[in-house]
Design goal:
The protein folds into 2 domains: about 200 residues, 3-Layer(aba) Sandwich (D-Maltodextrin-Binding Protein, domain 2); about 100 residues, D-Maltodextrin-Binding Protein, domain 2, CATH 3.40.190. Helix content is about 40%, strand content about 15%. It has 14 helices and 14 strands. Strands 10-9-11-8-12 form a 5-stranded mixed beta sheet, with helices on both faces. Strands 4-1-5 form a 3-stranded parallel beta sheet, with helices on both faces. It has a two-stranded antiparallel sheet with strand order 2-3. A hairpin with a 5-residue loop joins strand 2 and strand 3. Helix 3 packs across helix 9 and helix 9 packs across helix 13. It is globular.
């Protein structure tokens, strides 16, 4: 009997530690040959089409990284622009494989929608913008103001919480599409416009006279933004999660798109695992051993993605801040690829 019990325990351990079986989304993505990503309808620096219809931004590059991991080709992706109201239904219904649009990770979203967050690709906070001509220097001076906000967002909820917590009155002006919100704000339908601070900075760069607008100093919330997938497919969840971690880990170990081939010669065991010189990590994910190398060579590490889309190489000129690596005082901390 002891022998039988031992055999049963051993079999159970093998089952737990073995490679997870591919699930419905993983299989469907593999079969159709591309990743369908839900992105915003247009936020400069995050997901925005240019004059030729090419989409760029941090969220688009996150989608490209997933494609590079799955297929070895970062261009095997398509995007579906989604408003905040549309995004969760589109993911639940299977219209998209993953949301890589700016979506805040919250407990409610992880537990009531049949969806789950896979990590953070941008740490943000909600703010509020006004025209300088109204003479306001603090959000606490906005008692009785009208505020433009998009529905179906944590932004809408945080706005109400902040004003209530500070015993101030306000009147929401609810508009679904971002471009319509912006037009309403510029036209004077509302005194202020609220959303994530990075988004406010991006929108301000599109104005004819950006210096006429002020982002007020208050932070209304914490906004950890990142990809979301449907629950029930751990294999697909892992590909999305570890594609993000690979970009962060690559930056930590000094691997970038320019030196990735040279780094293949590194004696660092961590670098060897990340780049697939030491095999096994790709098999565990159900992809090729070069999955992370493909991400870095074709898309870049996290720092490269940040700088070209929203950092000093972009019109937004955002500081790394919370999005710096943990070694540099930020919150970006790649999980070990081992």
């Amino acid at each position: 009997m002891k022998g039988l019990k031992l055999a049963a325990v051993t079999a159970a351990m093998v089952a737990v530690t073995g490679v997870a079986q591919a699930g419905p989304t993983f299989d469907a993505v593999k079969e159709k040959g591309f990743v369908q990503c839900g992105v915003s309808t247009g936020i400069p620096g995050f997901s925005n089409p240019d004059s030729q219809g090419k989409w760029t931004g941090i969220d688009v590059d996150t989608c490209r990284a997933i494609a590079a991991a799955m297929f070895g080709d970062a261009e095997k992706f398509k995007v579906t622009p989604l408003t905040p109201v549309q995004r969760f239904t589109a993911l639940q219904s299977g219209e998209v494989d993953v949301l890589t649009r700016n979506t805040t990770q919250t407990l409610t979203r992880d537990t009531t929608l049949g969806l789950t967050g896979t990590g953070v690709n941008f740490y943000d906070g909600q703010g509020i913008m006004v025209k300088k001509e109204i003479g306001v220097k603090s959000a606490k001076e906005l008692d009785g103001a009208t505020v433009c906000v998009q529905p179906g967002t944590t932004t809408e909820l945080n706005l109400a919480d902040w004003f209530r917590g500070n015993k101030l009155e306000f009147q929401p002006v609810v508009v679904e599409k971002l471009d319509e919100v912006i037009r309403a704000f510029v036209a004077g339908r509302c005194d202020a416009f609220t959303t994530d601070k990075s988004q406010l900075a991006a929108v301000r760069t599109t104005f004819t006279n950006p210096d006429n607008y002020l982002i007020l100093p208050e932070d209304f919330s914490k906004e950890p933004l990142g990809p979301m997938v449907r629950q029930g497919d751990e294999a697909w969840f892992n590909v999305v999660r570890w594609s993000l971690n690979a970009m962060i880990e690559a930056e930590e170990y000094g691997i970038n798109s320019k030196n990735v081939n040279e780094m293949l010669k590194s004696n660092d065991p961590n670098v060897q695992r990340i780049l697939g010189v030491t095999p096994g990590m790709g098999k565990n994910l159900g992809v090729g051993n070069e999955w992370a190398m493909n991400i870095v060579s074709q898309v870049g590490n996290y720092g490269e993605i940040f700088e070209r889309n929203v950092g000093q190489e972009s019109p937004l000129k955002l500081e790394r801040g919370l999005n710096a690596t943990w070694r540099d005082g930020g919150l970006m901390y790649g999980w070990p690829i081992r």
